Amino acid sequence: MGDWTLRPATAADADAIAELRAVVMRPDLERLGRYDEHRVRQRLRDRFVPGHNRVIEVGGDFAGSVALTPAEDGHWLENFYLHPSLQGRGIGSAVLEQVLSQCDSPVRLQVLQGSPARRLYERHGFTAYAEDAVDVWMVREPR
Predict the structure, then answer these.
(1) pTM reported for the whole predicted model
(2) 2 has a pLDDT exceeding 70
(3) 10 in helix, strand or coil?
(4) Measuring CA to CA, which residue among 90, 74, 82, 71 is closest to residue 140?
């Protein structure tokens, strides 16, 4: 699975996370006809709150990010990106398990239609509660 850690994000991490977001989301956004090279990065920069985000490091190097953002009725799982070269090795599952273990309220997320990430979320107890042609909204109730 690899030697991974989570550390608090800082404002200086926003650009690296925005770049990773563009790489990770590009195939799904292109498939859906929604990829815009500028917008995919700017959306993250516009909503980035360092205090809600954590950086995933593998072997001491930047590997991804995850955010658990407080909401009125629980939390939102956001900005969960892992470098493609590290996907499929159990790191995403381990990070998700750790983040969810710290949450005793419902956790919601939004995933693109057809994204392989949906299977990861379903394996961790998320179920779809709404969807449209582009997005699926999922929730995981506390255990």
Answers:
(1) 0.92
(2) no
(3) coil
(4) 74
